[in-house]
Design a protein that fits this description.
Blueprint (H helix, E strand, L loop, with lengths): L6 E4 L3 H4 L1 H9 L3 E4 L9 H13 L9 H17 L11 H6 L2
Parallel strand pairs: 1-2
Length: about 100
């Protein structure tokens, strides 16, 4: 199984570009991804992803603990990336499109 890099995606707001914030992410070996300043459409992709996650996973379950939530999201993202067909990807999975598998 391929190791999945941890990425924190955000805009370029001052609260997200401060060294105190980005330094903590980098120490935890989390890559920082920032969209261009002032580009309103840049967040569309990530907002669409989280809308899907909420409606297909989060809102359907009652998590007793944070650990339950984390495990559920891990399972969901495995499904989302490896099994769920995406209309925007011509009904392929993200893994198939990215790796050509």
């Amino acid at each position: 199984m391929l190791a999945t890099p941890q990425i924190f995606n955000t805009d370029q707001g001052v609260q997200f570009t401060a060294q105190a914030f980005t330094g903590q992410l980098e120490q935890a070996q989390i890559r920082v991804s920032m969209y261009g300043r002032g580009r309103a459409r840049d967040n569309v992709v990530i907002e669409r992803l989280w809308r899907t996650v909420k409606y297909e996973e989060v809102y359907l379950h009652d998590y007793a603990t944070v650990l339950d939530l984390e495990r559920s999201l891990e399972r969901y993202f495995q499904f989302y990336n490896h099994e769920r067909l995406h209309q925007s990807l011509n009904y392929a999975t993200p893994v198939k499109v990215h790796y050509g598998a």
